Amino acid sequence: MSPARKALSKLEVWGLLAAGALLMAWYAYPQFIFSLYPLYELVRLLFPGLVPDVAPAASWIPTSPGPPG
């Protein structure tokens, strides 16, 4: 195998690793954001007024209609 082909193979491996990492990051983004919520609440509890309350901003999220009948 020529050195140019070997370098291309390494480049392909790094490209696949980067694409896989980006896909995993895209999938994990919502879980990561929600995992920060307890830390956010702790900061709000320990230092009132430092960070805003996000509960009023979530009022636009629709709720489920409940059981029929």
Overview of the molecule:
With 69 residues, this protein is mainly α. Helix content is 62%, strand content 0%. The chain contains two helices and no strands. It is elongated and about 65 Å long. The mean pLDDT is 82.
Which of globular, elongated, flat, extended, rod-shaped describes the shape?
A: elongated
Structure summary, number of beta strands? 0
Strand coverage percent: under 5%
Gyration radius over CA: 23 Å
Q: Low-confidence stretches at least 5 residues in length (pLDDT < 50)?
A: none
Q: What is the typical, i.e. mean, pLDDT?
A: 82
By helix and strand content, what is the structural category?
mainly alpha
User: Termini distance?
Assistant: 71 Å
Q: Considering DSSP H and I runs of 4 or more, what fraction of the residues is helical?
A: 55-70%
**Number of separate helices:** 2
Spell out the helices and strands N to C. HH
Q: What oligomeric state best describes the polypeptide chains here?
A: single chain
Summarize the biggest pleated sheet: none
